[in-house]
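Put briefly, the fold is written as integer tokens. One such record reads:
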Amino acid sequence: MATTTPSLPTLETLGRDLLFVAAWRRALSLAMPFLLAALFFVLVGRGAWIPALACPVLFTFLTYGSISHDLVHRNLGLPYWLNEILLTSIELLAVRSGHAYRAVHLHHHAHFPAADDVEGSAARMPLWRALIEGIGLQGRLWFFAMRRRGRHRPWAIAECIASTSLVAASLAAMPYTLAPIAWVVLMIMGSWIFPFITAYLPHDATGETDLTQTKLFRGKVLSVVALEHLYHLEHHLYTAVPHHNWPELARRLDPFFERAGLKPIKLWF
């Protein structure tokens, strides 16, 4: 007997409390990128290069995948002006354009797996190609954003100028300290993994519906490895929910996913 896919639950059914983030958690999240950047320079100043390397790694993971991501979707309940300044500031620390990121990311949500989906293009590539897709990605994102009209363009232009100035200043400081150029290089190299992590792994370009174009991940091992960030399907279905509440959103959606016949991907357990 044929079965039909159940209707997606509304946010009201799941609970609008999923949109709420405690003020202290929101403040801590927004402060974390600045604290990690500052800690990097403090540790380097003390000659502790090895522990300092953990700062850009954690910074890259937390910003593009969750903190900046929430600012892109404007789902933290911040005033418009503050949201935009934070998006610019945090992504600028990573030598990236926050508003180009927004233009490309929102297009990805609306058009995956279309040929002009720059962010999701790695999902259509073989593994080796996805692994090198990140080289030059930030430039491609910026040019994509520039080809589209919108309020993001003046911001993205200013962010491009600021990023270029940041790189130039880091190069100029090399005779005196290697810390700034080290941070810049690590940030640029860190962004090279984005297509593999955010497109190749979580997406299935052959999927025919919203439920099959993004993979469902579960299990304690993956939760620990991904620091509770492997909820890409849940995010695509409910973009208004901030990353702090993705685990709870996933828990509430599990009965729906089971009725829909989705099989989660697990790593051992």
